[in-house]
Amino acid sequence: MKRFLLIFLLVGLELSAQKAKPDTVFCDCDKARILSINDNATVNKTLSSSGFGNIKEISPSKQKTHFAFEQEHYSAWYKLNIKSEGHLCFDIVPNKPQDDYDFMLFKAGSNFCDSLSKYKIKPVRACISRNKEEIKGYTGLNNLSKKEFVKEGIGDSYVKSILVKPGETYYLVLDNVYEGGEGHSIRFYMEEPVQIKGKVINENNNPVKADITLTNQKGDTLFTSQSDKNGNYLINASLRKSTNYVLNFYADSSLIFAKNINVKSQDSILKIETVLPKLKKGLKYPIGSINFHGGLAVYITAAIPSLYNLRKLMRANPTLKIKIIGHTNGCDAGVDELSVNRAKRIKQFLVENKVEESRIEVEGKGCREMLFPKPLTFSQMEQNRRVEVMVIEY
Fold it and tell me: 344, exposed or middle or buried, with CB in 10 Å at 0-12, 13-18, 19+?
């Protein structure tokens, strides 16, 4: 009986966790929900607003601007305490795409809520346009937008990001113009405009003309480029701070390579030199991003672009035969088998994508060739869980 009650309690707790109640929203400035904005922050799904609160703080006449709500309908206020420097971006995501969310962002001084009407404080960003259901009603700030303000009617859904610094305070107010709304969520993040420039060379220091793609950790392609006859390339991108990305390099007669990059707040230019050695018998080379989940022969999603580049290389060079060599992080029991299975998993991918099985051998090195024998970080452990490629024939 006790066992039955314990199981019942555990199931109840699990169901309760799965059905988490939406967050409460606060409809007046002086009761704004306080958020600390570091590199990332999230407002989970909220309840719908009950109205405009006790005070109507926003109108074109009160703020003396065309970029204000015509009137408040169903409001939600947020006080943003900035903890890191960067270009603040956010996505306002309606729980129901048909809801039409407008927003205004104010930079706050002391006694902001009391001063809002008295001193006619204008917003630093505002988007009052009609929602677009084709993008599920999303609106917010991003680095791709050029306008700081969008007025009512048909217009852009996003406005330009804003450079913020630690210690600053901003107030964000949302207004859903429709009755019967279903609330929203918000994703805050810092995104930096970054120039990635570099040179691709071979082992003899000669320039290589290569295809270059920038992907996220899901394997999605964000930007593409190509090095010129001198091996030089340039990518202008907007990247989230403290987020890993992968630069993938491909040339028909060279081994492929991928490099992980991560943007810090002070970075505006990343200079990267890449060596793509020519294909030749006996050459062994780490791919750079074909890594695996701990204890598993399952590659991470960030490895997918490199896998497709490897397939492309094999199909572009029909005489190429390779050995895939698997590695592990740590020397627990069974690591030799695990490293072989990791190599087999990459072979399986290639065979499934129409590369002849006879052109691919596999080997496992276990923990005998760890890049970091005493790894201190997750990144170092992940880099140990890798495969390398050796050219058998070319």
Answer: middle
Which residues have C-beta within 8 Å of that of residue 288, sequence separation ≥ 6?
257, 258, 259, 260, 306
In 82-212, which ranges are continuous DSSP H helix?
112-118
Q: What residue type is assigned to position 253 of the chain?
A: S
Paired sense of beta strands 360-364 and 284-291, if any: unpaired
Tens-place pLDDT, residues 120-169: 789 999 999 888 878 899 999 998 899 999 988 888 999 999 999 999 99
Q: Which fold has domain 279-394?
A: 60s Ribosomal Protein L30; Chain: A; (3.30.1330)
Closest CA to 252 of 313, 202, 209: 313
Secondary structure letter of residue 11 according to DSSP = H
> In this structure, are strands 244-250 and 257-262 parallel, antiparallel, or unpaired?
antiparallel
Answer yes or no: CATH 2.60.40.10 is held by domain 191-278: yes
Q: What residues are paired with 142 via a beta bridge?
A: 160
Tens digits of residue pLDDT in 198-214 = 999 999 999 999 999 99
Instruction: For residue 302, give the nearest of 286, 288, 284 by alpha carbon.
Output: 288
Q: What is the pTM of this model?
A: 0.74
Question: Quick one: tokens of 210?
Answer: 């290569």
Rounded CA separation 201/333 (Å): 41
Lookup result for tokens 């939406």: 22
Q: 213 pairs with which residues across the strands?
A: 224, 248
